[in-house]
């Protein structure tokens, strides 16, 4: 299976001290890859570097055969790389409907953009009910659905998800994880999932990457991570 | 019906509702367009009736004031679009009005020098004023797209100071502090039927309604969402594929065009363009006006424009009514309006943070709620 997203020796950070050091991860097409680690392991920085919000000082990111260093942030979505940032990334002053339409704004094929919008509404029942509510009126779970929905309206090939379980009830988290699995199976979506919630992330992931202090310490199948007690104790703390 | 069939059935129904919803949504913008067109027509009719009613009072100053409200409205609506919708603060819109005013003044004078004093010269002048402001707006906008908050406020303030200064520096073209004066061509063939002030009012109404119509449609279009998204959350907007810098420059250009039209109108109405009228104070007035009126909605811009004409008038009346020494009266004359404006701003911010329009919306909401409870 070919890798749709290749991270090769990326070093990045804020100011003098690098947060990521020589990180290499390969995400095979059509899989869910969970990046796990404690606070400060560099998980969010990794995603910010992937989507160009942060420029790497060394190394490269290749997405679908293209070096992302040459791509502007706002063009990533056109290539098929969608990033749902930490803390939901919902435009709070816009309504649910307007937020979702924002995701398909750049698309030339208006008819398909509308179809994608309808599909998202079918996927997320609560959004359908609240379509004219403003973003700031939504609950945490609804916001996460909205942020995910907006990314899906763009029909991405790869979804970068930053801590979707943050601040959500376990039941809602489980729903979102199940949805990711469904999307992978039905549409062949590739997901790079950054999580602190190791249990729920590993419950849907195919691959697992454990990061610690800005480095990749383990990169293996999710199944193995689930089974290896020693590894879990050492890096994931349970 | 088995349970599965039932589920299947509901799902199909759901799908049909969705399909219907999407077709309706497809025509939503068309309907908004029609609604805005109806509003514009109604506004034109009402304002034309108002103009002739004001002319009937015999006080020509009232129509002059109406024309000034329209000129200010072009600028406040443009500034509302920039600051309220796109989230970019501008303390330099007075300078953009000045650009429009000088563009129009120079055009009318140039045409008059060639013996052209037909009515169309006014429209050409307005157009030149808008174009001049668009160019200046694009330059400021390109700089503004890299700046945020206080830095943007600083740069735009400098523009507000520099532009009037340019007019005095290059006094060969701009005639220094005296400014450019001229006679605005008017349809003088039927002076008995149409006074100069009425003509100015009609001119203003036409421009203001056009600006409001265009901006209202722009805001409710899919580009409007883009402008609002950028104002609210740059990262989310960027990740949704929006080019932040381009959107911000575009907002500045559109806003500058509106301010330029406002300035050009003001020049055409007052028959002159002088730096004194477009000082930093005007820029501050414009910003205060849209905040008091209600930031973020075009209706707020209407309130703001009304205040810009009404409050200075009120302060003149106050100074006139008090028996003051000529020295004190003169001091008060220019400054009282600013003081009243400031006081008004403070009161509105405390009592109604949403501005006048926010207050109106709240009151009308409460009224309709009461009516509903009385009805049931």
From TrEMBL, chain A:
Q: Where does the record place the ABC transporter domain?
A: 5-238
Q: Which CDD domains match?
A: ABC_TM1139_LivF_branched
Q: What SUPFAM superfamilies has UniProt attached to this entry? A: P-loop containing nucleoside triphosphate hydrolases
Q: What are the protein's GO molecular function terms?
A: ATP binding; ATP hydrolysis activity; branched-chain amino acid transmembrane transporter activity
Keywords in alphabetical order: Amino-acid transport, ATP-binding, Nucleotide-binding, Transport
Keyword ATP-binding in record: yes
Q: Which family does it belong to?
A: Belongs to the ABC transporter superfamily.
Designated name of the protein = ABC transporter ATP-binding protein
Lineage here is: Bacteria, Bacillati, Actinomycetota, Actinomycetes, Micromonosporales
Task: Name the gene behind this protein.
Answer: livF_1
UniProtKB/TrEMBL annotation, chain B:
Q: Which domain of life is it from?
A: Bacteria
Q: How does it sit in the membrane?
A: Multi-pass membrane protein
Bilayer-crossing regions: 37-55, 61-82, 94-112, 118-144, 151-170, 199-219, 249-270, 282-311, 332-356
Grouped into one coarse class, the protein's main location is membrane
Q: Where in the cell is it found?
A: Cell membrane
Which named protein is this?
A: Branched-chain amino acid ABC transporter permease
Identify the InterPro entries for this entry: ABC_transp_permease, LivM-like
């Amino acid at each position: 299976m070919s890798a749709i997203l290749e991270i090769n020796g990326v070093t990045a950070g804020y100011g003098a001290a690098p947060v990521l050091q020589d990180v290499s991860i390969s995400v095979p097409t059509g899989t869910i890859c969970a990046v796990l680690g404690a606070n400060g392991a560099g998980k969010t920085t990794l995603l910010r570097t992937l989507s160009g919000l942060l420029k790497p000082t060394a190394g490269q990111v290749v997405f679908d055969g293209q070096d992302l260093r040459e791509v502007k942030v706002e063009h990533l979505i056109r290539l098929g790389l969608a990033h749902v940032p930490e803390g939901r990334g919902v435009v709070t002053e816009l309504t649910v409907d307007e937020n979702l339409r924002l995701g398909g704004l750049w698309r030339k094929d208006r008819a398909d953009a509308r179809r994608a919008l309808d599909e998202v509404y079918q996927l997320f029942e609560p959004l359908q009910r609240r379509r004219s509510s403003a973003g700031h009126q939504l609950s945490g779970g609804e916001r996460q659905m909205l942020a995910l929905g907006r990314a899906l309206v763009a029909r991405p090939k790869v979804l970068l998800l930053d801590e979707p379980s943050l601040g959500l009830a376990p039941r809602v988290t489980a729903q979102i994880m199940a949805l990711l699995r469904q999307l992978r199976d039905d549409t062949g979506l590739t997901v790079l999932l950054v999580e602190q919630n190791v249990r729920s992330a590993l419950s849907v992931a195919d691959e697992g990457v454990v990061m610690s202090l800005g480095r990749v310490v383990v990169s293996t199948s999710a199944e193995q991570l689930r089974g290896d007690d020693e590894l879990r104790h050492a890096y994931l703390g349970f | 019906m088995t349970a599965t069939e039932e589920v299947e059935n509901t799902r199909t129904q759901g799908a049909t509702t969705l399909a219907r919803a999407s077709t309706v949504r497809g025509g939503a913008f068309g309907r908004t367009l029609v609604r805005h067109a109806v509003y514009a027509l109604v506004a034109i009719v009402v304002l034309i009736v108002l103009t002739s009613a004001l002319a009937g009072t015999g006080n020509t100053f009232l129509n002059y004031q109406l024309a000034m409200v329209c000129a200010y409205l072009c600028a406040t609506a443009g500034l509302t679009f920039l600051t309220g919708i796109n989230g970019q603060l501008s303390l330099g819109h007075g300078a953009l009005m000045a650009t429009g005013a000088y563009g129009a003044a120079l055009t009318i004078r140039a045409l008059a020098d060639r013996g052209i004093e037909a009515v169309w010269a006014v429209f050409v002048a307005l157009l030149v004023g808008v174009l001049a402001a668009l160019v200046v707006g694009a330059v400021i906008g390109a700089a503004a797209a890299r700046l945020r908050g206080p830095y943007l406020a600083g740069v735009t303030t400098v523009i507000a100071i520099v532009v009037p200064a340019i007019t005095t520096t290059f006094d060969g073209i701009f005639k220094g502090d005296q400014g450019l004066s001229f006679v605005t061509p008017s349809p003088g063939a039927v002076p008995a039927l149409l006074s100069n002030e009425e003509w100015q009012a009609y001119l203003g109404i036409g421009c203001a309604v056009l600006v409001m119509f265009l901006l209202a449609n722009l805001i409710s279009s899919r580009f409007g969402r883009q402008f609002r998204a950028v104002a609210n959350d740059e990262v989310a907007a960027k990740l949704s594929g929006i080019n932040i810098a381009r959107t911000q420059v575009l907002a500045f250009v559109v806003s500058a065009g509106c301010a330029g039209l406002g300035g050009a109108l003001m020049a055409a109405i007052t028959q002159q363009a002088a730096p004194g009228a477009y000082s930093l104070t005007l820029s501050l007035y414009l910003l205060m006006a849209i905040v008091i009126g209600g930031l973020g909605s075009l209706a707020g811009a209407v309130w703001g424009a009304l205040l810009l004409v009404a409050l200075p008038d009120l302060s003149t009346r106050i100074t006139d009514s008090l028996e003051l020494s000529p020295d004190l009266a003169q001091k008060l004359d220019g400054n009282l309006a600013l003081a009243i404006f400031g006081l008004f701003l403070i009161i509105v911010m405390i009592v109604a943070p949403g501005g006048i329009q926010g207050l109106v919306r709240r009151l009308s909401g409460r009224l309709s709620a009461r009516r509903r409870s009385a009805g049931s």
